[in-house]
Amino acid sequence: MLFFNFLIAFMVGGIICVIGQLLMDVGKLTPGHTLVTLVVAGSILDGLGLYDPLIDFAGAGATIPITSFGNALTHGAMAEAEKHGWVGVLTGMFEVTSSGISAAIVFGFLAALIFKPKGKVD
Amino acid sequence: MDPQEYQQLEQQITPPTPYVKNVLKAFLVGGLICTIGQAIMYLYIIFFDFTDKTAGNATTATMVFIAAVLTGLGIYRKLGAFAGAGSAVPVTGFSNAVVSAAIEGRTEGMVLGVGGNIFKLAGSVILFGVGSAFFVALIKLILVTAGVVKW
What we know:
Spore_V_AE (chain A); membrane (chain A)
């Protein structure tokens, strides 16, 4: 059962990355446009109520890709909007997704203190 | 040489995109990163009393930390060159974008360099994520108020 869950996380996470790769190679999008497209897609899927079932099914396969960032933002906004009306859309926005952004800021700052730039060429 | 000739020449010289190879690499690396995430999630659930719902945030923070270290050591860039979207799409890619921009900004000083550049790459993801979430939540709120759908 445990192995099965790992396999599904691998498959679903891999497929989401393949969609990103196809957007880049076939759709000729830049990496930036690709990530933005995936985030917006995650947000819309949550609005339709489809992203939560995907997380229940795939676990980290659905929460680790960047699509879950759009999902988490929308989720927080909708949960607060349900309680407090339109103000909640703003107040709830970062409720769920705070850990990813705050971790990235903190570790980014610490890394800038510790590591030196390596230049563009390896 | 007229523009048409130039375009033909450019197409001849540019190597064709190895679609299948890129897709396979993205699938393997992306899937592997998510599998590692799944393993970390189980560690939090089994050893630190997290639930299915709360373990997700802790897992994200841990993955962001690992990617920050790998970025600082210059390893994540090599992974990115190999895996393409496989390393860019997971949250570790978001971390890589933030951390590498912060490190590169260091030469211009802490406030203007690091502070001003830290979201140079990741800013568009945050902007469009927040913008999209705002409109989706607003539309849903209007639809619920109008009685078309339920929360």
